[in-house]
Amino acid sequence: MKLSTKMRYGTRALLDLALQGGSGPISLKDVANRQAVSLKYLERLLDSLQSAGLVRAVRGSHGGYQLSKPPKEVNLRQIYEVLEGPEALVDCTIDPRTCPRCDTCVTQHVWAQMYQACMDILASTSLDDLVQRAREQVQPEVYDI
User: Distance of CA 75 to CAs 58, 82, 123, Å?
Assistant: First the structure.
């Protein structure tokens, strides 16, 4: 399983918002600078995350983005499903009709277990967990994910 840039950068942006939380909307330009990510790319990611209800945009001179929910209520699986989609590692674990060998395949179950284990880890990890980890470390300006 390989995470795309969308997932890594989207998570970094949300973590940045969570770390700045409570101080009102955060300028996306500031997030882009801290995370060393293109502003245009972040805008696209945050549009998707906003459509999913994970962030909200605030307009005006002191506008920006902020989390729509407390960091404890946002887990990495939610972010994954918005930015990566709910697809499994291999199609046959979702729909056995996609593979003519499904009835005799000995690996299908392994791929399904592997996917589920990954999803369980993402679901059990909240933005608040990442905030706590970041605060326990020496806080660099950029949080690598």
Answer: 23, 11, 6
pLDDT of the residue at 127: 97
CATH number for the domain whose boundaries are 5-85+126-136: 1.10.10.10
Q: Where are the domains of the chain?
A: 5-85+126-136
Q: Say if residue 18's pLDDT is above 60.
A: yes
Burial of 144 (0-12, 13-18, 19+ CB in 10 A): exposed
CB of 125 closer than 8 Å to CB of 118: no
| pLDDT computed for residue 3 by the predictor | 85
> CA 16 to CA 108: how far, in whole Å?
38
| Greater model confidence, 1 or 84 | 84
